[in-house]
Amino acid sequence: MTARTIFLDADNARDRMVYAWKVACELLQFGKPVRVRIDEKNPTRTLEQNDLMWAVLTDIARQVEWPVDGKLQLLEPEDWKDILSAGLRKSQRVAQGIEGGFVMLGQRTSRMTIGNMSELIELAYAFGAEHGVVWHEQRRAA
Fold first, then answer.
1. Do the bridges between strand 93-96 and strand 71-74 make them parallel or antiparallel, or are there none, so unpaired?
2. β-bridge pairing 102-105 and 65-68
3. Which of 32, 35, 55, 139 is deepest in the core (most CB within 10 A)?
C-alpha cells in the first residue's frame, strides 16, 4: 500500500479520523507496520491571490520581452510563472530535456502558502516595475 495523506479540518475531522483508524487497523491485521504523523498544515494560496497572480503575469507577458534561445521575445504567462517562481526560491533548477535543450524546474504555485504567494506577487510587481509594465485594473490580494 502506498502512503496516504489525510487532511483534516473542523468540518470533516471526525469522519476522516474514523477512516484513518480503519486503514491503520487493516494494515495492522496483515502484520504491516503503521506510522501516524500529525502536522499543522499551512493554508495554501487563496483564489483571489491566484487570480491576481495570473493577471500580473499576463501584463508582464504582453509587455516584457525576455531572451530565450538567444533571442528577445514575448513569453506566455505560464513561462513567466516558471521564471518568477524560480526567482522566488533564489535558486534555479535546470534539467536536461529528453530531446536536447534544458527545462527550468520551478515551484508549484498551487502548493504555495498564502505568504509565499504574496511574496511571488510582490516579486512580479517589482520585476514589472523595473521593466516599465503598465498594470491593468486588478484587485490587490497580496
1. unpaired
2. unpaired
3. 55
Q: How many other CB atoms sit within 10 Å of the CB of residue 83?
A: 20
Q: What is the pLDDT of residues 24-81, one digit of tens each?
A: 999 999 999 999 888 888 788 899 999 999 999 999 999 999 999 889 999 999 999 9
Report how far residue 73's alpha carbon sits from residue 92's, in angstroms, rounded to the nearest whole number. Answer: 21
**Beta carbons of 130 and 109 less than 8 angstroms apart:** no
Closest CA to 106 of 77, 129, 128, 141: 77
Question: d(Cα 93, Cα 56) in Å, to the nearest integer?
Answer: 24
Cβ atoms of 32 and 103 within 8 Å: the answer is no
Residue among 54, 55, 81 at smallest CA distance from 66: 81
Instruction: Please name the residue that has the C-alpha cell 528577445.
Output: 72
**Helices and strands counted in the chain (H then E):** 4, 4
pLDDT at 3: 76
CA distance 128 to 134: 8
